[in-house]
Structure formats: structure tokens, C-alpha cells
Specification:
alpha+beta, two-stranded antiparallel ribbon, 37% helix, flat
Length: 52
């Protein structure tokens, strides 16, 4: 990711870290999303299927 201002970081709680470890077998400290990825999750543009 090119610029720290272009990313959003969410630090995980110990419970969230344990869940990720149990499901994926990998350790994670945080989730980092670009501004575009975060916007797509907050306000998806394709809520309704085409043709409706």
C-alpha cells in the first residue's frame, strides 16, 4: 500500500486473534484495508441484483 493515509488499520482483540488462528492457522495482529476496500464494505454499490 503506497501511503499510510490511504489505509485504515483495525487492531484485533485477543479474542479476534484467537478466532483467526483457529480458523486459518495463521496469526494476525490487525486488519488493514485501503480506503476503497473499506468504502466497498461499508456502502456496497451492488446491493440489489441486476434486473430488479
Amino acid at each position: 500500500m503506497s501511503n499510510a493515509k490511504d489505509t485504515f488499520r483495525i487492531d484485533l482483540t485477543p479474542e479476534q486473534k484467537a478466532t483467526i488462528r483457529n480458523v486459518t492457522g495463521k496469526d494476525a495482529e490487525a486488519v488493514e484495508l485501503s480506503v476503497e476496500e473499506l468504502e466497498a464494505r461499508i456502502a456496497p454499490s451492488n446491493i440489489f441484483p441486476k434486473g430488479k
